[in-house]
Design goal:
Blueprint: H1 5-12, E1 30-36, E2 39-47, H2 55-66, E3 73-81, H3 110-113, E4 125-129, H4 137-150, E5 155-159, H5 167-170, E6 179-180, E7 187-188, E8 190-192, E9 195-199, H6 214-226, E10 238-242, H7 249-257, E11 262-267, H8 271-286, E12 291-296, E13 301-302, E14 309-310, H9 317-325, E15 328-332, H10 337-344, H11 349-352, H12 357-377, E16 383-386, E17 392-396, E18 402-406, H13 407-412, H14 417-420, E19 438-444, E20 448-453, E21 460-463, H15 464-486
Parallel strand pairs: 2-3, 4-10, 4-11, 5-9, 5-10, 11-12, 12-15
Antiparallel strand pairs: 1-2, 6-7, 8-9, 13-14, 16-17, 17-18, 19-20, 20-21
Helix pairs in contact: 4-12, 6-7
Length: 493
Amino acid sequence: MSVTRSQVMDSLRSVKGPDGSNNIVDQGLVSEIIIKEDRVYFSITVPMDRAGDLEPMRQAAEKAVAGLDGVNAVTAVLTAEAAQGTAGRSSGGTNGSGAPKMGNVPGAGASALSHMPGLPGVKHIVAVASGKGGVGKSTTAVNLALGLQAMGLRVGMFDADIYGPSQPRLLGLAGEQPTATEDQQKLIPLKAYGLAVMSMGFLVEEDMPIVWRGPMVTQALNQMLFDVAWNRDGDLDVLIIDMPPGTGDVQLTMAQQVPMSGAVIVSTPQDLALIDARKGLNMFRKVDVPVIGIVENMSYFIAPDTGKRYDIFGHGGAEREAEKLGLKFLGAVPLHMDIRELSDAGTPVTAIRPDGPEATVFKDIAVKVWEAVQASKGVEAPIVKLAPERDSLKVTFKDGYSYDLPAEMLRVMSPSAEVQGHSAEQRVTVPGKRNVKIKTMKPVGKYATKIAFDDGHDTGLYSWSYLLELGQNKDAKWKAYLEELASKGMSRG
């Protein structure tokens, strides 16, 4: 039997308020209680200037509710009010012109940027944003994530569109719920098509509106971002954040919570959409997040009966805008029924029809995005030499570090999603070829090499950063792999 709102409120009466006397319930500080099966979410309104000091109170509230029978996970967030305000009053002040005060946005300001923590278990973060809704931002985000995964990268998806979360539906995860780690400290992201996924849509019913104040939303997103075990199955190479549309407090705060490797702006060819896209671009520039480029969605329509092209919303608007602003034009996505129908069905086109023309467009965009991310990381191309016996690679980096990487290790630890999605038992042998050889190597852009092995595996895309990681940790990685096999009574002998 699910816990009730009344039970939650009763348990919270054991928690003292900010003044240390009366409890947080009788002071009217508890609001926005959401109960979904065995999970409880609520907010506690506190003075803005004391939010940092009251973290123990928030933890005590979570602990109190966690003690109820039938509760397996609790999330409490502190929603701040203005320092001179009263409890329960919204914290979203204005500067007299109706615009939010910058000081009311958590993390706002240049000083916050220089002290932003990284996200544990995540190497790179890329935001996908739009100046307005309805341009296909979420669809582009999920297909971009799948395109990056097709390159052999470990990819996660964070749905930050808290008022209209789309990723559960787009990835066929609607109605599912995340579980907690063994120590109950973090949520385990759900998996779909190899992606690690987290969304507010997992925590509330699909048709339930989120009626939360801005400060609570930003804090809830912050907790959802940091209180997730993103590296449950190994560190993510990149986390795609599906941003809310627009340029308000939530968007600004998200851009300032974690160091982002870049942002992708999604627009349509229409002038109105491009005006709003410029606003999104300028927001990221104000917080020093590099804009990787612009994607033009619903760019054109190809009539299935005649093959004739129709530019329904105009032609080349986003490409011209990108050129005008000095940005890379990442690609034009067609208006196609399959993209819409497959998205609605939770079967994204890049996952279901990876070799189709629409998926190819998204994959090409993914390559450009990853090249930009790698360029920002600054890993220069190494010298890669194949041994005469074709059983190993010698990789020498610009800083003088050199590593010999056996072909067997490269094959077993291929970054391909095809391999990384397998269990240790499935990877125990390379179809009868422990002495696998490297058949061919092919450079990919300025960031990776594609390796084909003589057992037929040819989907491994080895970025320079991944080769560096393997070289630096090859003994430890191989030992851990063998120990995993041994724990299951297996070996590579």
